[in-house]
Amino acid sequence: MGAADLDPPRGHLHQGAVYTGVPLLWYTDVALALRWQDDREPGQLRVERATHDPDAFRDSHLAVAWARRQAVVVLSPRQELGRGAIRALAMHGYREEERLGRARARIERGEVPEFVHVTGNERLGWAEGVVALTQILELPRSLFEGGYVPGVEQAASLSDDTLALVLARLRAYLALVDRGRPRR
Amino acid sequence: MARTAVTLSISMPAPTRKLLDGLREGRPVSEYVRGLVEQDAARRALTSPAMARLELARARHELPAVWLREHRPDLLEPGRGNPSVEPLDGATAALDRLKLIALGPAPR
């Protein structure tokens, strides 16, 4: 199945560029909206549970979400890089994710369709891990241009062959079409 | 090739034959033409729903058998777990005037 190798960073935004420190957002376990308290307390935002509110998030509502820094690889081709939103795939290290680490041998053999093994690169200070084909993200371009939050850095670049491997594996993964039976 | 395969003979002018020989780069004509047919089917799959289904079925057939296992646990799930945010329900955040102007709801 092959593994993905890393080259040094090219220093500009491009397909296959690997960035570290990118804050990714997660949904919270219960839906929480941030609402303006114009009537009672002007200038204040109040966190309100939206679990039973059919009107929640219909306008431009603020919401509560988790954020965590993560490494990502840019998926958008050159034609998309001028847009406000960039597509990317999340990357994970075997050391940080215990279950991932236990499945490492199977991932390296290409038996786990949703992950592409990425070899470590001591020179780049990069530990072995995976590209997660399940986590297709849409991120603001400003994140990659340093204008959103400090600490986002281009750490490496996928080689041309490796980028081809990731794209081919993503295509194959998306061909896993099986609507099957309803989940119980 | 399966025993049910049908042999086709194709006639073409000499310049086209020369072009074909250049394009197939040493591959047998039959292999090259079969590849062309599959490529064309894949290209059409981008617009025709019926062809798209055929293309996906073909692609799925080529996937490693181990990928088709029924049960595949989410290996990232534990790392994605976060503490409950329920205690935040009812919390308030005060904003200064500048932020209020920038973030305030659009007038109705």
Give the helix/strand layout:
The complex is a heterodimer of chains A (184) and B (108).
Chain A (H helix, E strand, L loop, with lengths): L5 E2 L9 E10 L5 E5 L7 E6 L12 E2 L2 E9 L10 E9 L4 H5 L1 H5 L6 E4 L10 E12 H4 L8 E6 L1 H15 L10
Antiparallel strand pairs in A: 1-10, 2-6, 2-10, 3-4, 3-5, 6-7, 7-9, 8-9
Chain B lengths: L13 H10 L5 H17 L3 H13 L15 H4 L11 E3 L2 H7 L5
Helix pairs in contact in B: 2-3
Derived from helix and strand composition plus strand pairing, the structural class of chain A reads alpha+beta
Strand order of the largest sheet of chain A: 1-10-2-6-7-9-8
Continuous helix count of chain B: 5
CATH architecture of the largest domain in chain A: Roll
Précis, in short:
The complex is a heterodimer of chains A (184) and B (108). Chain A has helices spanning 98-102, 104-108, 141-144, 160-174, and strands spanning 6-7, 17-26, 32-36, 44-49, 62-63, 66-74, 85-93, 115-118, 129-140, 153-158.
Structure notes:
The complex is a heterodimer of chains A (184) and B (108). With 184 residues, chain A is an alpha+beta fold. Chain A has two domains: 6-26 and 69-174, SH3 type barrels, CATH 2.30.30; 28-64, no CATH class. Chain A contains four helices and ten strands; from the N terminus they run E-E-E-E-E-E-E-H-H-E-E-H-E-H. In chain A, the strands form two sheets. A seven-stranded antiparallel beta sheet of chain A has the order 1-10-2-6-7-9-8. In chain A, a hairpin with a 7-residue loop joins strand 3 (32-36) and strand 4 (44-49). Chain A is globular and about 60 Å long. By secondary structure, chain B is mainly alpha-helical. Chain B has a domain at 17-66. In chain B, 47% of the residues lie in helices and 3% in strands. Chain B has helices at 14-23, 29-45, 49-61, 77-80, 97-103, and one strand spanning 92-94. In chain B, helix 2 crosses helix 3. Chain B is elongated. The termini of chain B are far apart. Mean pLDDT of chain B is 80; it is low at 104-108. Chains A and B meet through strand 3, strand 4, helix 1 and strand 9 of A and helix 3, helix 4, strand 1 and helix 5 of B. Strand 4 (44-49) of chain A pairs antiparallel with strand 1 of chain B.
